[in-house]
From TrEMBL:
It holds the Pfam family Hydrolase. SUPFAM superfamilies: HAD-like. This is Haloacid dehalogenase superfamily, subfamily IA, variant 3 with third motif having DD or ED. NCBIfam families: HAD-SF-IA-v3 (TIGR01509).
Length: 258
């Protein structure tokens, strides 16, 4: 995979919890698998993924997890203007997982802690990535606040993104993705129907949520928001604002900016 930096801004992303999710694990199994000393050996390459799972037990089956589709849509938009790299505390199976999930072609570089021999939140791992890519700084997003804080110590703009909404905000305020257009509609069923139709036509990410400005006592009158970032032609959704204004009006709604 290419690791030659460009003059584009650097966007460095954590993988798990940002672009990939896993099904819940039993508390008993998690206690064994994520015991700090054992986990550290696995994510710094002292032991292989197979050895880690063998140490945990036969019930610890290997799984590649699932891509968080809405987050991937945001990364695809950001990649048009950014050099996007992954920095993951991972075992030796990371590269195989990325290939299986199709994520290896969605980023410009991958940094695996088990290959580097050092893991987040050690500031050394961030400095090594910056040195290898030839950048002095960049934006780093992680769902672990400690990792984001450590990145700031290493000279990065470290951002804690506990969910996809936080990732979207982080990219938007740094102008790494274009402004979002919001379809604001009065009916939840219509909003979800419009979102499904737009998603099928190639719009993204088409996330639906309740108007955050509505009070808890306004449940009967609340508006519903459909978030649109990219159009089917690859342009920002804002490039089609007039078309989206007409669509919102057809459903007794209106548009706003994210």
């Amino acid at each position: 995979m290419e690791r030659t930096p460009t003059l584009k801004p650097l966007l460095l992303l954590d993988l798990d919890g940002v672009l990939r999710s896993f099904p819940p694990m039993s508390a008993e199994l998690a206690e064994i698998a994520f015991e700090p000393s054992l986990l550290h050996r696995a994510i710094t390459g002292e032991i292989s993924d197979e050895q880690w799972r063998e140490a945990v037990g036969p019930e610890f089956a290997a799984t590649s997890g699932e891509v968080i589709a809405e987050a991937l849509a945001l990364v695809r938009v950001a990649r048009r203007q950014c050099f996007v790299a992954l920095l993951s505390n991972a075992t030796t199976r990371l590269e195989a997982d990325l290939a299986l999930l199709g994520l290896d072609g969605e980023v410009d570089a991958v940094f695996n802690s088990s290959r580097l021999g050092v893991a987040k939140p050690d500031p050394a791992i961030y400095r090594r990535v910056l040195d290898e890519l030839g950048y002095s700084t960049g934006v780093f997003c992680d769902d672990d606040a400690k990792n984001a804080a450590a990145a700031r110590e290493a000279g990065l703009d470290g951002v804690h993104v506990p969910d996809t909404a936080a990732l979207r905000r982080a990219l938007a305020v740094r102008e790494l993705i274009p402004p979002t257009v919001l379809l604001i509609l009065p009916d939840r069923d219509e909003a979800e129907g419009v979102a499904a139709s737009l998603l099928g036509s190639g719009w993204g990410p088409c996330a639906v949520h309740r108007d955050m400005l509505a009070g808890e006592d306004d449940a009967e009158d609340v508006d519903w928001v459909v978030e649109l970032t990219t159009a089917p032609d690859g342009l920002p959704a804002s490039a089609h604002r007039a078309e989206l204004d007409d669509l919102a009006e057809q459903h007794d709604g209106f548009t706003g900016e994210g």
